[in-house]
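---------- Forwarded message ----------

FYI, see the Heat shock protein HspQ record below. Original note from H. follows.
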Amino acid sequence: MTKTLAFSPDQHAASRTAPAISHARFAIGAVVRHRLFEFRGVVFDVDPTFANSQEWYDAIPEDIRPSKDQPFYHLLAENADSNYVAYVSQQNLEPDESDEPIDHPAIAGLFDGYEDGRYSLRREHRH
């Protein structure tokens, strides 16, 4: 038995125009800083588009809420007071030019070393 799918004209037009594909600007191990807030971190994972909860997304003030259709980065982050894990949109990150390592207790479990402003992923975590 063949299944037929029916599309409205609007749905059919939408299927012909794919959304723009955004490429990740930062690789795992890159040290970055937030454009708006005073923290920096090392990238340990990348989602091609938003992959967190709607509740998390809605908690961001609407006037600075980023588009979901861009890479989002998982960071081992630090600020002047603490270290933590952050989830940040690509539009809110820039390269960190300080050449200073990140002070986060989880770094040793994921990365081997720090050289030329970036961390090397431990062999057991490479694909």
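H. also flagged this: The first strand starts at residue 31 and ends at 34.
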